[in-house]
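Colleagues,

Please find the record for the two-part complex below.
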Amino acid sequence: MGLTATKPTDGLMQDWPLLCHRIIDHAALIHGSQEVVTRSVEGPIHRTTYAEIRVRALKVAQMLDSHGIAVGDRVATLAWNTWRHLECWYGIMGVGAICHTVNPRLFPDQIAWIINDAADRIVMTDITFVPLLEKLADKLPNVESYVVLTDSAHMPDTTLRKAVAYEDWIAQADGDFRWRQVDENAASAMCYTSGTTGNPKGVIYTHRTNVLHAMMGNTGDAMALTATETVLPVVPMFHANSWGLAFVAPFIGAKMVMPGPKLDGASVYDLMYSEAVTLTAGVPAVWQMLLAYMDANKLTLPHLKLVACGGSAMPRSMIEAFLRLGVTPRQAWGMTETSPMGTMSVLKPPFSNLAEDERINLLTAQGYPPFGVELKITDDDGRRLPWDGKTSGRLKIRGLAVVRRYYGSDTEILDEEGYFDTGDVATIDQHGYMRITDRAKDVIKSGGEWISSIELENCAVGHPAVAEAAVIGLPHPKWDERPLLIVQLKSGATLSAREMLDFMEGKVARWWMPNAVEFVQSIPHTATGKIMKAALRQQFENFEFPA
Amino acid sequence: MGLTATKPTDGLMQDWPLLCHRIIDHAALIHGSQEVVTRSVEGPIHRTTYAEIRVRALKVAQMLDSHGIAVGDRVATLAWNTWRHLECWYGIMGVGAICHTVNPRLFPDQIAWIINDAADRIVMTDITFVPLLEKLADKLPNVESYVVLTDSAHMPDTTLRKAVAYEDWIAQADGDFRWRQVDENAASAMCYTSGTTGNPKGVIYTHRTNVLHAMMGNTGDAMALTATETVLPVVPMFHANSWGLAFVAPFIGAKMVMPGPKLDGASVYDLMYSEAVTLTAGVPAVWQMLLAYMDANKLTLPHLKLVACGGSAMPRSMIEAFLRLGVTPRQAWGMTETSPMGTMSVLKPPFSNLAEDERINLLTAQGYPPFGVELKITDDDGRRLPWDGKTSGRLKIRGLAVVRRYYGSDTEILDEEGYFDTGDVATIDQHGYMRITDRAKDVIKSGGEWISSIELENCAVGHPAVAEAAVIGLPHPKWDERPLLIVQLKSGATLSAREMLDFMEGKVARWWMPNAVEFVQSIPHTATGKIMKAALRQQFENFEFPA
């Protein structure tokens, strides 16, 4: 026994790399009969299990292998949330390739650009997007073949190169295949950010970060799932890694309900009701549709317990509506660059007994970071700012599943402490609760202080005549920048600038009050629904504030 | 842009090593005011917070650094569950040393043996164990100094080398210290197994395995903790990594309640009641004391929700008693070698609606493995056996926090698939629920079939006259081995061998029935309370079954 010269204590635990295929293996073995229910793109409800999904994912991997797909090659998906999309994920990652989820809602030119930028060799697409791809195909010289996620009965006539129906394709595989063993730091998936300016930027997840993110997502600080839950991810699998749910749910053996292409209030409601969904996740716009439908039809969702909400801030009225329904609203903040979980609005012990109004105030924050996420706020020079709930600064993040560098870029995007600048502006309180106050490029810098464009917009839209509001900063001789409020009125409504400002008076700090109000026919949006402030800045670049 | 010859997709996520100190950093930052309440060794209830614990753990690290403790050096603790022990853990691991938790219940010679085997440079001890260490000190030439976990007011007069009171010791540090950054695969902690034969064997955990185990422990398949829970680990921190709870609770910000040295029913009850404990964990013997005390005094624990139980099987009557109290009993199986979480008896969806009797049957199993644990059962030749709930085989385990090799040993302990042989015999059913049927070395091999000594013992102790029962296999000319039942009667009780066997008739398979019954004054036990079957085998080595 005794000691040797080299450390006798190293390497005495098993080497068990964190690989994505282990998640579907575990689900198939321990939760094999657990259901995955889909409203299929073709129409009918489809039911399968984790055990079947694993068998078919292995066939996907086998077919990709026989096609010559190598470790690190990119395979794209343009697809809704369905069981077939899930099979493609695990099949692509399981053969060591990179699953590139393309957002079909991007402008066609952007789609072509990112497929070429990623050098996707195969594109797996729902029938929905076949016409779109046919129009783009000439611009996609590197795509070797197209797999259409349907069966031969529903296979459209198409000009797409070597197009094959998914069911026919995997029927060629006997399933006698083993997952390719890769390093846990190998790339597993890829997603482009849809910025409001410039070309989209590719984020590359690894097997390790996806598995760690799934573990993090299953803790009580995040989804707190168990095998008895039923999860409906409204958030698409092409949005920021589906917020991790395509990993989180099978990891714990929860039932999955996949909405396919139908995300309107009635369709989502019907599926949630009939499948007794207990947890769901999506953006505020989807919940607005769901709540409006439920309200109009006097409906309830007796099984629903938790609604995770991200993408943009959940309005207070929506938080209150869910609480009235007996559902816990859980805001989440994250980005494509953060896999995406950054914070979740979980109530910690000192707050769970707060009076309702204060509790709701807290739920309007984006929440605190779970273990594995580190946050800081800084000024423009990178100096840390206090966590007092008042001081706002640039939000920066470091963690177990956060980007270090964009795909194909040599630009350093981390600071000297290894933090990524999110581009958001936020406050953090003494308990770690973070609240986004603006995008850094939209914040208005007035006399050395920061004015939140978002808070001004939220205030303005509180007026019953206002359909949408946008605030931009414009140069000001004395204060550097001052806010201009741009308003789109509801159809048929009338409002003067004076009335608008009178309404806001007292609701925001005096020195935040916009210096002018302009009315427009329509506020421009990006493909993913964000206000295009760059376009507004251009439109108003010659605007001059009244003296 | 475009591709380069090397993979353009590697290393694009941040490097965020899984280090133990990150857990206490997170707890101090995000759950800084969360309480850790201890029944101190000196007597009074002591209250502190995660923020304070981190500050003091940093001072421990600083003092170890100034003592010359290097990365990989071993520092021992002989201590109860207290806030100071927690500070020592994070301080020792945070300086890159290995926290060697010594079980003070071992025989003194074993304690001396493992301290020497580990080459512990410093021993941190509760006042309780100072007399014990004074007797052993001459046999511990490598221990450079002793830190006694108390303040100067309670510091005993001691002959221990360079003994210092902990509070005086850390008062010398100014706290201006940063955790040592080590590789996530570096050793962090060490625990010896207390086998029933041979010398104890050292298991070395790493930072990575401890952090991954804490993540696993926080999922819904394990403890499912949240920051609103209050956790009382009755399981000592010197038992199998405290079942992970010293990491699991601060990871999620749960309040901790530490029982110190008093584990009797009244003391544990009082602490659980006054601190509103919601989750606790320990061995059946502790729960027996607690339940007896509660029953005798007609008490309830209105806040308690979940009791995790491991170490040995939870009797059915105990499961029923907890269910009557409105508490979920959660059996767990694991070993020092598995960090220790292996399985937890969580009810999966098909079973949560079972009739009560069947549900309790399922809860008597040891449960299914969470993600990160892989199990198999094999015959003696290593061939996999079916998961049918009936076939029993050697239980083998592979996973993210499982041992590969013992400290200081060159012996290969994994099979060709990388699985560790647990030494247990078990069945696994089609849903993954595992049930321990015996220790491999205790199973009786009769005519090619296996008889479970544990099941026979459980049956025998059901007789009201029986205090304890042990079954061993002895050579048999026709069947290779046959069971001998050894019985210790309750004080004053009488029972004949015939009456004993009549009682068992019909309760176990006919061919399992013991071939003989012997009565003894007392059944021998190891230091940790296990039946010493090796001693019984020796005692009965010349025993001959009646023809």
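Chain B has a mean pLDDT of 94.

Comments are welcome before we finalize the supplementary table.
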